[in-house]
Write the structure tokens for this entry.
Amino acid sequence: MNHEVQVLDTREALAGRAAAEIEAAAARSVGQHETFSLAVPGGSTPVATFGLLAASAAFPWPQTILGLTDERLVPPEDERSNHSLVRRALLDPLAARGLAPRRVVPLPHEDGPDVAAQAEAVLDDALGASPFDLLVLGLGPDGHVASVFPATPPTPSSRRAVRTTPTPGLNPQVARVSLSMPEIARAARRIVLVQGEDKAAIVRRVLADIESEADLPGANLPKPGTLWLLDRAAASGLG
Ligand code: 6PG
């Protein structure tokens, strides 16, 4: 099976396609089971998409459970916090329109030996045993997705969350809590957003299906149910 990849000419077009795909997935899920569970990442790429979603006239926010794919273990008001990013880029603009998701599900932000178990309790409480309907993911320059980094040991399939530390040199150098790879793979659908020429080399490695690259987390996403949205610069290394 080939990867499902769409290449958009510009960053604006990428954000527009991402918002349209997320909105379509929301409508499908609400039609099927009356709610839509969505988890979003941190990083710079999804910010424009958050702005479009916050301005959308049709998005089913009252039916949406909004969570995070990963969190940096910093105080919630710290600007490196993913929840703080989502608040500024999505929840505050929504609130200005008098709107809010049905439920917001932040991950724990205090580091400690139990942080992954605490994250799992948060997921169990918000979703029961179900996986997310949709995950939005980014791709790090080292091939990480959410906060599953290349050196993260394999996680048992029963574990929904994992505590990780970033690849050396990757910013911000703070410990993270993340959906585990099995939980990421279990989601009904995934959209990976990648932009910029600095991602061209890792996009090529991740999408090339080379056996020796199998330890790149991005290369371990299941092909069925994973849509890669790339801007032209990020796709420039593909043949
Ligand atoms: C995080 C993320 C992470 C991110 C990638 C891509 O908290 O950092 O969830 O997985 O999505 O590093 O980041 P950019 O969008 O900034 O390239």
About this structure: The first helix runs from residue 11 to 33.
